[in-house]
Amino acid sequence: MNSNEILDMLQRHGVKPTANRIIIAGALAQASNPLSLSDLEVGIATIDKSSIFRTLATFKEHGLVHVIEDGSDSAKYELCHGTGDEHDSDRHVHFYCERCNRTFCLSQVHVPQVQLPAGYRVRGVNYLVKGLCPRCAAQAAMQQD
């Protein structure tokens, strides 16, 4: 994702494009997996942890990031490629590998529709599958042979 696309994405979600926000959105866009606050802090040495945290909170408030609670005691963040509307059109499954402790975005696997009783209103969905990623599953199979 280039800088013009990042600027456009921030503006579509109603987020003022400050230098820090552009850098953090760029880091999330370049990542192959969802990132924790610590991952971002290590990867972006020019921005302090509290500024990264505040930016992530702003991104969450504006529907720009998915926040994934994978059981690792550290929330992970990834860019949401939905429209920025209240309805999240980018709901998909995440996978947590119990061996390498990485979280994967499975954007091609959509979260199934859940029928809730009358009066309930969905504001977010966190659909997480746990197990072994392909690399760890192959390593485990080789160790059993």
TrEMBL record:
Required cofactors, per record?
Zn(2+)
* GO molecular function terms attached to this record: DNA-binding transcription factor activity; transcription cis-regulatory region binding; zinc ion binding
Q: How is the cofactor bound?
A: Binds 1 zinc ion per subunit.
In which residues is Zn(2+) bound? 97, 100, 133, 136
Q: Which UniProt keywords apply?
A: DNA-binding, Metal-binding, Repressor, Transcription, Transcription regulation, Zinc
Any GO BP annotation = negative regulation of DNA-templated transcription
Q: Which InterPro entries match?
A: FUR (IPR002481), Fur_C (IPR043135), WH-like_DNA-bd_sf (IPR036388), WH_DNA-bd_sf (IPR036390)
Per the record's keyword annotation, is Repressor included, yes or no?
Answer: yes
According to its UniProt record, what is one Pfam family this protein matches? Answer: FUR
Domain of life of the native organism: Bacteria
Q: Which family does it belong to?
A: Belongs to the Fur family.
This chain belongs to which protein, by name? Transcriptional repressor
According to its UniProt entry, this protein's organism is Sodaliphilus pleomorphus
Highest classification ranks of the organism: Bacteria, Pseudomonadati, Bacteroidota, Bacteroidia, Bacteroidales
